Each structure stands twice: as structure tokens, then as C-alpha cells.
Amino acid sequence: MRVQSLxxxxxxxxxxxxxxxxxxxxxxxxxxxxxxxxxxxPHADPVRAGRSGARTGPVPRSxxxxxxxxxxxxxxxxxxxxxxxxxxxxxxVRAEDLLARVRGCxxxxxxxxxxxxxxxxxxxxxxxxxxxxxxxxxxxxxxxxPGDRCNSGTDPYFSSATAYTQSDGRPLDAESLPYxxxxxxxxxxxxxxxxxxxxxxxxxxxxxxxxxAVVGDVGPRDLIGEASYAAxxxxxxxxxxxxxxxxxGVTYIVFEGSDVEPLEDRxxxxxxxxxxxxxxxxxx
Length: 284
Fold this sequence. Notes:
Strands 1, 2, 3, 4, 5, 6 and 7 form a seven-stranded mixed β-sheet that branches. The chain is α/β, with parallel strands linked by helices. The chain is built from five helices and seven strands. Helices cover about 20% and strands about 15% of the residues. The chain is globular, with a radius of gyration of 19 Å. Its main location: secreted. Keywords: Carbohydrate metabolism, Glycosidase, Hydrolase, Polysaccharide degradation, Secreted, Signal.
């Protein structure tokens, strides 16, 4: 749980802070308020639960574990395919269409996850076609390169590392890159066995919104339901690492065998995600 015991202390210190003198550092810009969509359910306890434990990373991009059958990397799109899509004027995939495909659950995990420490372990990872998915809450992951919104001052459990890194070797930027977090491999589920890795493409659904992201971090082995600051913000979910996130209603769909390179290419993730989501919706 992301503990907020410092919140009242920080607020009291702010009231007693002296006037800023010339040459003093400028204060951090205020975080804009995000108007959540209808039906938003904030956490009853506005602290992140159990996310402060040890994390895995950084992890090499090369696959670790049992060898998987070779397949075409599904994150790539041919030029001809892109032109055909543009000329067809196809509408974006709707949230309701994706949710219809994941209404049931054929479990691929050997057990169930907690969404927060102390909560019941009642969330399985399910599979359908070339995708795995789960339905959970969204806790805000601010880990990675520090910025105005994500740093040790805004998040007492901030880590400057992410399990997967950019093409230049630097940690990911949670403020600008929508990414999702997968649990560390365990007896419950090993994402590597489903060809899910750093850079895999994910569709994240909340309310009537569909946003595309990549797998960018690895979290505790017994918890599920976490995404980056940018992912939360794109979905209209309050992104404050202290009291943001939402208690339920988020569906994460990760496309097996997909890959975005470089991992930090947000536009490439959105393009590949839309295509893969369309294939998923139109599949048998």
C-alpha cells in the first residue's frame, strides 16, 4: 500500500513555508484536476496498497524462460495494410466491442491475484485467442525517470527504475508514456509463457474509453491492476500517485506476441493497438 502518512506533515509545512526569495527554486507546477468519467469509483482508502515491495528489473528485452514457438511480431504493420486501413475509413474500436469479447473468463493463471494488499485474491488472468486479460483496479505507477508529477516528492515510494527501459537504456517516463504493469512471474502466472514482455501492446478499457499502452514495468508477484501516470491520465482517471487511481472497472487486454520497438514510441503503440484490437474484436 502506498502509505500517505506524510501528507498532513507536508500540508502543515506548506502553510508555514517562508516567502520565496529571488534566486530560490520555482515551486512545482500544480497538478491539473482530471474530471473522471461517469461511474468512477475512487479507492475507499486513497492509498496505494502493497505496491512498495521489491520489484523486478531492469529486465533485458530478450526473452527469458521456456522457448516459445516462432511467430511474426504482431506489433508491425505493413505499408500496404496501413494504406488499406486509411482508405477504408474504419471507425476506431469501441470499448463496448472489446468488453463483449472478454465478458467471460477462461483462466490461464493457476490462481488469483489481489488488487491491493489485504484484499481477497479474486482476480484471475484470462485468455481468449491471442490475448490475455484481467479486470481490476488501477493504481498509479509513477516509477521511472523523475519529472514534475512523478518524483520522490510527489510519491514517497518513487523508484527511478523500471523493469524495462527505453531504446537508449534509460528508464521509462511514466508521465508521458502509457504503460501497464504485469505481476512478476510466480506459481500464479508467468507472463513470459504467453509471449508477453516489455513492449507488448495492451488495450486498456475504462468506461467508454479505449487507450493503448505497452507493458513497461513488473510489479509484486501477488498483486495486479497498475498502470503509469500517463495511462491513468489518458483514461480520465485521477493520476495523483497519492490518492489517484480507481477502485475497479478497468480491463487490461494484452496481445500475445506483439511488440513495439522502440518501446517508448507512443504513436507506434497506438497504431499497433488499434489494429490488434480490431483483429481481436473481429476474431472467432
